[in-house]
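Entry 14. Structure prediction run on the chain below.
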Amino acid sequence: MYVFIKKNKKLKKIILVVTLFLALGNAQAQQAFKWPGGKKAAIILTYDDALQSQLNIVAPQLLKYKLTGTFFLDGKVSKPDIERWRQLSKAGNELANHSLYHPCSVKAYKAAHYSEDYTVAGTIKEIGIMNAILDSINGHKTRTYAYPCGMYVANGVDYTDSLIASGIVKYARVGGDNRTAIVSKFNNLDFFKVPSWGVAKGTEGAALIAAVKETLKANGMLVYIFHGVGGDYLDVSAEAHRELLQFLAENKNDVWVGTFQEVLDYVKKNRK
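Output returned:
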């Protein structure tokens, strides 16, 4: 076969052209994603469930390091805290939708509301109600969403398509671990199943920072999920969280820290 190809000049030329074409296509596929300002990665800090520790600890830490995050609020937002959430929004943070009653599967944990008791229509309706509550806080008309417990089913039925059709939210976040949550290829990213790292209780600052370093190596994007910080539940220590923010601030030339909607707007516009 080699002798035949060697003697057939036309065939050799065809093979050379095909080889160069494939090499060029492969190089383009591996080309690094271009983040704004020449940065090498994007980090999104998200906080779930409208917890007091987020107002008392996270908010001042973000302000200190001049960083912003996304707070996925649910119906636990209390009247005395509304002004504090409003001020957090004015500081550049995103207030996003985490459903009204945060229904999870009965298999997840004991709760007041279970997804098995919901219909798709009922789920979409309550997400819309939560949007109205958020609108009353900061008046923004575009929202993003985080599936409660990372589960996008109502009584076993995937409601993602209905959520998309409703038009009430722009993007949606699911869960994952820190390695599988790092996104480095964006052409097939599902904007209604955006992966994220659900940070476990007691995770130390060194582990939080290590995930940023992995994201930098991958020229990628990583979404963190925090619950309590220095209190409440599923909490990491205030010091571990502070260490992460300090590292992000010290590496601001390489790392873009943006809100969930802000970063995904950029990705959607610039991916190929």
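Strands lie at 41-48, 70-73, 94-97, 145-146, 153-154, 157-158, 172-173, 197-198, 221-226, 255-257.
Filed with the rest of this week's runs.
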